[in-house]
Design a protein that fits this description.
Blueprint (H helix, E strand, L loop, with lengths): L2 E6 L12 H10 L3 E6 L12 E6 L7 H14 L1 E3 L2 H7 L4 H7 L8 E3 L13 E5 L9 E3 L4 H13 L4 E5 L10 E6 L2 E7 L21 E3 L3 H12 L9 E8 L5 E7 L14 H12 L2
Parallel strand pairs: 1-2, 1-3, 3-4
Antiparallel strand pairs: 5-8, 6-7, 6-8, 9-10, 9-12, 10-11, 12-13
Helix pairs in contact: 1-7
């Protein structure tokens, strides 16, 4: 009977935002595992008592990135961690997009500006500013060229809080074709979804956003699957991944490209794909008993 920790966050008095967590715990128990949902920052947890710790919804870690990084390293020494610590370390900084682009993977064009570095904001097209560490569109906003002063203040705030900022052209196809997250378990494609635009014009960077608006099932095209597989093949060291989500959009040429590669704590959207619960459980059990 493998002991498995599904690693999450502590919601306090509020209900958890992870609608899939209880479903996975129950399904793993029904399959014969001893499964429990555990907050990553609970000091009382004995991580060495588990055969596998699966990062699922540690959705508050961006506010405490250094503390989370230390936990990842510590947990990875005490038990098997999925995904592996070196993968988490690489993927928690969105400068990984530069690594993917250098490997020939189609990605959304991205420039980076660290604290103390000047930034040349676009003057001829709509663009997005967001931190290289974040989730749920936290501290992200889209701007038109005539919003230069507001965008500059956004950058100043990011730099003041120690964030490196990333600047990308706004991918206008998101407004029509949406964004398509493709989920892989054990290296195999499982299911895909489509969601609408997260960043709406005029929404402040520090306002709350709906991270997955208008979510619906999606059947990926062969071109989308090919780009997603190229992205996974480009992860440094060719590690064994329990889970991966590749978020795709259509680039200016109309072809799919990577918006984000989610290897830390992506939502699986099992509530939208209930038939995927079984394969996810099988993948987790295989990793726990390997």
């Amino acid at each position: 009977m493998p002991r498995i920790a599904l690693v999450t966050y502590d919601p306090g008095a509020e209900p958890t935002l992870d609608s899939d967590l209880a479903v996975l715990v129950d399904a793993l128990r029904e399959a014969g595992a001893e499964a429990v949902a555990v907050p990553w920052d609970d000091p009382a947890v004995d991580w060495g008592a588990f055969d596998l710790a699966v990062i699922r919804s540690t959705w508050d870690y961006h506010w405490r990135a250094a503390q989370f990084a230390a936990w990842v390293e510590r947990c990875g020494k005490l038990t098997r961690l999925a995904n592996p610590p070196e993968v988490v370390r690489w993927n928690t900084d969105k400068r990984y997009l530069g690594d993917l682009a250098a490997a020939g993977v189609p990605t959304v064009p991205t420039r980076y500006t660290a604290p103390g570095e000047p930034a040349d904001l676009p003057r001829d097209h709509e663009y997005v500013i967001k931190p290289t560490s974040g989730a749920g569109a936290r501290y992200a906003a889209r701007y038109t060229p005539d919003q230069h002063d507001t965008a500059t203040e956004h950058l100043r705030r990011l730099h003041a809080e120690g964030f490196t900022a990333m600047i990308q052209p706004y991918v206008r196809s998101v407004d029509t074709a949406g964004e398509r997250p493709l989920l892989f378990i054990g290296g195999r494609f499982l299911h895909a979804s489509r969601k609408g635009a997260v960043l709406t014009p005029g929404t402040a960077y520090d306002a709350d956003k709906v991270p997955h608006p208008d979510l619906e099932p999606w059947t990926p095209t062969p071109a989308e699957l090919a780009v997603a597989e190229r992205a996974l093949a480009a992860v440094p060291g060719a590690p064994e991944l329990l889970y991966a989500r590749v978020d795709l959009v259509d680039g200016q040429d109309g072809e799919p490209c990577v918006m984000e590669l989610e290897l830390v704590e992506p939502h699986f959207f099992l509530f939208l794909h209930p038939g995927s619960v079984g394969p996810v459980v099988e993948g987790i059990l295989a990793a726990a008993t390997r």
